[in-house]
Amino acid sequence: MFFYLSQVPQWLAGNGHAVLADWLSFLRVFQYITFRTAGAAVTALLFCWWFGPKIIGLLTRLKFSQDYKDKAEEAGGLDARVLSKRGTPSMGGVMIVLALDVTALLWARWNEFLALSLMSVVVLAALGFYDDWVKLTRQDKDGIHSKVKLAVQLALGLFIGLYLWYHPTKSDLIGKLVVPFYSGQDGPGGEIVFAGVGVVGLLVTTAAIVGSSNAVNLTDGLDGLAIGCTLIVTFVFIIFTYIAGNKIMADYLRVPYVEGAGELTVFCAAMVGSGLGFLWFNCHPAQVFMGDTGSLALGGVLGVIAVLIHQPFVLVIAGGVFVLEAVSVLVQTGWFKHTRRKYGEGRRVFLMAPLHHHFEKKGWYESQVVARFYILGILFAVLALSTLKLR
Which of 144, 126, 127 lies closest to 135 in space, CA to CA? Predict the structure, then answer.
């Protein structure tokens, strides 16, 4: 919305109001992505600081709090966990989603990329909200059936993939793949691509969205862990989206130029601001949990952004912590089922999955696990950024 203020001086000058146009020439600053990016981050942060206590108070009054032991506490052996999670309000993802959506609409210029990102946030937040509502109202830690969540995520991923594939100017986002560190065919912008991979591209798109959504959801088990790691990945994508939307920089760094991708920089800045605002209340000991309302939406939209700038594999690198968390669950579940069939008794690879609970069971304090995972997240982020030159 604010972008259109930059057009006011030009309109006034074109209609014979040169003096007034000169007086209002400062409004042209709203056309710059860098200015709107900073504005979006600050606005979202202030929105959370102002609105957060009200949301937490409302969730508390509605008794939308976890009054059962979570799976980690139920399993036992968490000697390093000082405080129980019981009684803490959940559904705090509402705070993130509201701040993100409102701020993005205020500061970003409307285009198809922004529309797809906002739609993804709303759809996945609604799915997560329903799951949280079932958990909290029925005090059932399992929530809705996992097949229902997976079906909605797959439908969203396929919709976005097919939309881009059949779009007259954006089909290359599906029909070509960019692989970091690999020297393949040069694309029109100098990027490294594999061309003519429509079906594979569609599968990669869907996997990026579904996988990222679930991986962030699995990581959301300790105070500040999921949102902190999400912030680190989003900082990486602020840089990638800005470069992808700037033709000169994209050509120089040999990454795909995607017209209109610069507005995703503003969107990512709104994610950072809302994430920092939420972390203010979610750091240990947490006053509120994001719940599936936030984790499914944030994870899914990271996948969407990665697809829209032609960098789904960079998301795998930048989100290395999320990948480790998801893989730990897959390995634990698969090995347990295999050994139960083979030996009649299931065996474990980790003390507990996801991975952060394994380290809790080893005696690490919750704050230690979170801080050390942050360090890993930063290392993965640096590795992802290095792909800009190592091509």
Answer: 144
- Which tokens in the block code for residue 321? 């912590």
Asked if 356 and 329 touch (Cβ cutoff 8 Å), the reply is no
Whether 68 and 280 have beta carbons less than 8 Å apart is answered as no
Token pair in block for residue 331:
């390995």
Structure tokens at 226: 């999921």
DSSP annotation of 65 reads B
Q: Go through the chain and tell me how many residues it has.
A: 391
Residue 84 has pLDDT above 60, yes or no: yes
Whether pTM exceeds 0.90? yes
Distance (Å, rounded) from C-alpha 271 to C-alpha 289?
Answer: 17
pLDDT digits (tens, 9 = 90+) for 340-385: 888 888 889 999 989 999 999 999 999 999 999 999 999 999 999 9
Q: What phi and psi, each to the nearest 5 degrees, are found at residue 65?
A: -130, 160
Q: Which residues contact 50 (CB under 8 A, 6 or more apart)?
A: none
> Do residues 328 and 358 lie in contact, with contact meaning Cβ atoms separated by under 8 Å?
yes
Q: What is the DSSP string of 86-147?
A: TT-B--THHHHHHHHHHHHHHHSPP-HHHHHHHHHHHHHHHHHHHHHHHHHHHT-TT-S-HH
> What angle do helix axes 320-343 and 198-219 make, rounded to 10 degrees?
90
Look at 183 and 223; give whichever has higher pLDDT. Answer: 223
CA-CA distances (angstroms) from residue 18 to 13, 22, 215?
A: 5, 6, 55
For residues 181 and 204, what is the distance between their CA atoms, to the nearest angstrom? 18
State the DSSP code for 351: S
**Which tens digit of pLDDT belongs to each residue from 299-344?**
999 999 999 999 999 999 999 999 999 999 999 999 999 898 888 8
Tell me the Cα Rg of the chain.
Answer: 22
> Average of pLDDT values for 134-141?
76
